[in-house]
Amino acid sequence: MDATIFVPLGLGLTVFGAALGIGKLAVAAAESVARQPEAADKITGAVNLPLFLLEGVAILAEVFIFLMLILG
Amino acid sequence: MIASNTDHSSVSVLDQVGPNIIHHVSNSDISHPIIHFPKIFGIDFSVTKHVFMLWFVAVVVMLTILIPVQKYIKSNSKRKSRWVTMIEYVVDLINDFISRPNVGTKWVMTWTPLFLTFFFFILFSNLIGMIPIFDFIGFIDRFVLHTDQNSVINQLLHGGVTATGNFNVTAGLATVTFFAIITAGVREHGFFKHWMNLVPHGLAWPVYIILIPIEIMGLFVKPFALTMRLAANMTGGHIALLALLSLMAIIGEMFHSAAAGIGVAIVSVPLSAAISGLEIIVCLVQAYVFTLLTAVFVGMAINVHH
Question: What's the number of domains chain A is made of?
C-alpha cells in the first residue's frame, strides 16, 4: 500500500467540496427565485459565474490527478 | 482504436486498454506526421492529427459562418436566408446576455466580435470532435482497403480528435483573452490607471503588500483556469467514453469468452450512447462558459467596481 493510494482520495475530496459548494449555490438560487419570480433572470445570471468557477476547480483537480498518476 | 493496423495479438487486452485510450486522445507522433513541413526556428511545423483537426474546424467555421455572414452583409437586398437567421439568433443571444451586461453599452460593438469568434470556434470544434467519422473511415480502411501503416490515410484515421481537447489550443485561446483583458483596460482607463485598477483604492497600506501579489497571480491564473477547464472537459469526456467501450473487451478477456463481452455490450453500448448525449450538452456548456468568462473578465477590466 504505497502512497499513490492517496491521489484518487484527494480527487474525491476535492470533488466533494466542489459539489457541496455548487449545491449550496443551487439552494440559494432556488430559494431566491421562489421568493421573487420576476427576478429569475438576474438571479440565474448571478449564479452562472460562481457555478462555472467552482466547476473549473473540480476539473482542475481532475487534471492534476491524472498528471500525477500518469507522470509520477 | 480498433481500426489501427498494428498487430497486438500477443499482449493481453488489459495491458493494451490503457495505452489505447491515451493514444486515442493524444496527439499523433511528430516523427510520422500527416503532412511534413520543415523546421522553422527549431519548431517542427509538421501537420499532426491535432493540427489537422484544427485546420479542419477552421475551414468548417469559415464555410458555415463567415462566408454566409459576409455575403449577407455585402448583399443589397438584405433578405436573410434561414441559415443566416439562425446565426443571427445566436449572435443576438450572445450580444444581449453575454456581451452587453458585462462590457457595457459603450464597448459592446468593440468586443462582441471577439466573443462571437470564441463561441463559434469552440462550439464547432467541440461538436466536430464528437463525430466519429474518422474512426468509421478507419474501420473501412482496416477491413476493406488495407492501406499501409504510415500512409496518409492511416495516419489521418487514427481517430479524429477534439481540437480544443489539446491544452495547447486552449492555451492559445486563453492568451487571446489575456491580451484582450489588458487591451480593454488600457483603452478605457489609460495605461497606468489600468494597472492601478488591479487593486481597490482606499485601503490601509499593509493590505496592499498581500493584495498586489495575489492580484498579479490572479492575472495569470484566470486564463490558465480557462485553458484547463476547456481542455480537461473535452478530453475527460472522451476518455470516459472510451473506457466504457473498452469494458466489453476487458470483461471478454477476463472470462475468456466472447459471449461475456457481448453480454456486457448490452449494458456498455447504451450507456456510452447516453454519455455521448451528456457530452453534447457539455460541449455547448463549455463553449458558453469560455465566452461568458472572457466577457466577465473583459468587463471587470472596463468597469472596475470592487
Answer: 1
